[in-house]
Amino acid sequence: MQTGVQFQTLMSAKQRFCMMTAICLGAFLSHFTAGVVNVSLPSFTQLFQTELGVAQWITTGYLLVIASLLPVMGKLGDRYGHRMLHNYGFLLFTISSVLVACSTTIATLLVLRVVQAVGAAMFQATNIALITLLLPKEVRGRALGIMSTAVALGGMTGPIAGGFIASVLSWEWLFLAHVPVAVVATVLAFRYIPVHLPKKQAKSIDIFGSGLFTIAASSLIFAISGGNEWGWLSARQIMLYGLAIVVLWLLIWRGRHQAEPFLPVAVFRLPAVSTGLLISFASFVLANLVLVVMPFYLLDYAKMSSLSAGYLLTAYPLLLALTGPLGGWAADRYQAQAVVLAGLGSMGAGLTALGVWLGHMSTVELIAAIALVGAGMGLIASPNNSYIMKHVPLEHAGAVGGMIALTRNAGLVTGAALGLGMMNGQTAGAQPDLEAYKTVFIMGGWLSLCCLCIWGYATRSNDRKKRANG
């Protein structure tokens, strides 16, 4: 077996293409399957004679398990090899997808959905590390950009495909439709992702530390996802936030006294890593503000048809698909910091335009504003990921790659919760008025500005340190 650095020069163009195809198919499928059942949740209550609150765990439980396990799986990848975790995650995901469709009770379905989420977490947590370790740095940004596009397209097409499947096929096909693609991805992964050894073998896996992190992450994300339903200052929310803070503090305190802590705290102290993770989280919050709130505005306030609203919202994934690889290419050729800055500016411009002029915008202007948000996301994701991984020691690539994936999932949950929560802060039973929608987007514009300032300051400080050391 050889190291990832050696494979950067030995891999053929065909092997790189097939490897990237497998990785991107996995990134697409894990987010596609997260949303494909959303539109059918009410029908599951009738099929299995259960309450909607139970049926919602088909989606919520899937997302919660993935988010909780991402850093754990990344750490296991650092220990046992990212290829092994990634590829066996494909196998587990594919087999459990078939088994979910054979469920006869809601309990069985939920358990198998958790197994499916474990498989998805295994390849979500290791895909960034594989790209970082196995591809040359001159093409790494473009590869991360293509993968980010696959993530966005999976998230956008899942609900659309779910609606189509629910209208013409039985519920089992919600879990079977993607299986042929998963089989192809699994075969490509085992055939073309090279076997490699980690640069430095971790001494052991901190089982207790991984358990603490899982408790902290699941408590926090569970609280965020339920904030609208329970109330943001309810006793349950405060208990969950308190539990997350106490457990996370205990994890960090414990890690300071270990040779091989679960969380590589020293790595997170690097400004490039900590700032990059913050920007990753915030950018997905901003994106999901638009993706969650705009359909309500278009359908309920602007009185558009579902078809027209769907066409209009495709401006986001289309621009992301175009600018994702472009942003990666620019990060490879120029400076990732400048590309991320441009992306934050683009997202901020789109959100500010919606916040100021919503209600007076033509269809073309709405499309342009949504396109700015999509373009900004494409310019942020891959350059930011590349910038983070550039500053991470290779022995921690899996752990930090898992944290990047965690910020993505947590950002999506937080963006949805904030957007819906602000719109629901109206009179009970009343539809949100125009000012409620504008307030959501204005808040997004201010958040973009804060991120611009933080990123600009961090970039400036990093440049000063380089000049001082150079």
Automatic annotation (TrEMBL):
InterPro entries, per database record: MFS, MFS_dom, MFS_trans_sf
Domain of life of the organism encoding this protein: Bacteria
GO cellular component, as recorded: plasma membrane
Keyword tags: Membrane, Transmembrane, Transmembrane helix, Transport
Pfam families: MFS_1 (PF07690)
Major facilitator superfamily (MFS) profile domain span: 19-462
The species this protein was found in: Brevibacillus parabrevis
GO molecular function, one term: transmembrane transporter activity
Ranges that cross the membrane: 17-37, 57-76, 88-111, 117-136, 143-167, 173-193, 205-226, 238-255, 276-298, 310-331, 338-360, 366-385, 397-420, 440-458
Protein name according to UniProt: MFS transporter
Subcellular localization(s) per the UniProt record: Cell membrane
Membrane topology listed for this record: Multi-pass membrane protein
